[in-house]
Amino acid sequence: MQQDTEAVGPGPSSDAPSAAAWAVVQAAAVHADRAGCPGQPAAFAVNEAGQALAVPADDPQALVAWRGRAGWEPLVARDDPRRALLDLYLPICSATTSHPVTIGHLGQSLDGFIATRTGDSRWVTGRENILHLHRLRALCDAVVVGAETVSADDPQLTTRLVHGPNPLRVILDPRRRLGVHHQVFSDRSAETLYVCSRSLARPGEHCHGLATIAAVDETADGLDIAALVGLLHTRGCTRIFVEGGGVTVSMFVRAGLLDRLHMAIAPLIIGDGRPAIRLPARAMLGDCQRPRYRVFRMGGDVLFDCDLRSRRDEDAAGPMAAPPGVARII
Fold first, then answer.
1. d(CA 234, CA 152)
2. Which residues of 231-245 are buried (b: 16+ CB within 10 A; e: fewer)?
3. Does 189 lie in the same domain as 81?
4. In terms of residue numbers, what domain contains 160?
């Protein structure tokens, strides 16, 4: 797995290598559940038109191949301009019905804030990271955000900037604070699920604007996140993208239901504002989680791709261990 910082291209249509890699990434995601089965695609290349093409696993033109439980593996050299994008997204594309994945993302300042105290968050991270969000939406079956994100940003949660389908939009509003005027409840760009506390779901009520209401039980920590994830899995959502904000992503981390976390750090100092991840305090650093990670450069931002299902200190000599010394990466 990758150790060094990799530069991720600006957009799937901005240059041929990025466009080719993105086409293969999308094909890999679509075929993950069937990959490796007899008569099903086990590798992909691109044709002269830049379209993904299923090929035999030993085809010299193949960019990716299915490796059983390990999932999709990039076959291009590390210095190939398509490699960084493949490296970043193939772990997500490898999710299947039997091995689903939930991934979170936050963009924060150098001092750990995702927005100012007034909620202004446009834009903490740069253009390349915004494109990354749209790519994640296109690869995932559902995108989850909290009520604060909808209230502050009124997002569309669609894939306007990249090629790919719009995901199911899942809005968490346990206290039913949001009105139906927000875009996610008033447009038909994508199907929307409005998740609230079961105690606030009215008998016979099925819709909140154009969104379908889903009532979920509460726990001492808030909404029953495990029940929510189970609900999405029953709807066929193999890949779940928790886009924000900090409270929502923290809920998934605290519940132990986030498999990967993408944390983009921007060269910005806010001073005070809305924090990113917040979890119960630990007295000792030894009790804190040190996940295995990879590092990618996105324009002026640095993205940490953290595997929350593993601990780096359990395999310090492994391929994810940080290289010694100091190296300039940008």
1. 30
2. bbbeeebbbbbbbbb
3. no
4. 101-314
Strands (E), 160-317: 168-172, 192-197, 207-208, 211-216, 218-219, 222-223, 239-244, 260-265, 273-275, 292-298, 301-307
Question: What's the CATH number where 182 sits?
Answer: 3.40.430.10
Residues of the chain with pLDDT under 50: 1-4, 11-13, 316-319
* pLDDT of amino acid 249: 96
In a domain, 268, yes or no: yes
**pLDDT tens digits, 27-77:** 999 999 988 787 788 999 999 888 999 999 889 999 999 998 899 999 999
What is the reported pLDDT for 35? 86
Q: What pLDDT, on the 0 to 100 scale, is given for residue 314?
A: 52
3-class DSSP state of 262? strand
Tell me how far apart the alpha carbons of residues 106 and 116 are, in angstroms, rounded to a whole number: 14
Amino acid identity, position 187: D
Give dist(CA 199, CA 216) in Å, integer: 9
Residue type at position 300: G
Q: How far is residue 228's CA from residue 216's CA, in Å, rounded to a whole number?
A: 7
| N-to-C CA span, the chain | 20
What one-character DSSP code corresponds to residue 129? Answer: H
Q: Is 116 exposed, middle or buried (0-12, 13-18, 19+ CB in 10 A)?
A: middle
Does a structural domain hold residue 89? Answer: yes
Give pLDDT, residue 328. 64
What's the structural domain count of the chain? Answer: 2
Q: What is the pLDDT of residue 13?
A: 46
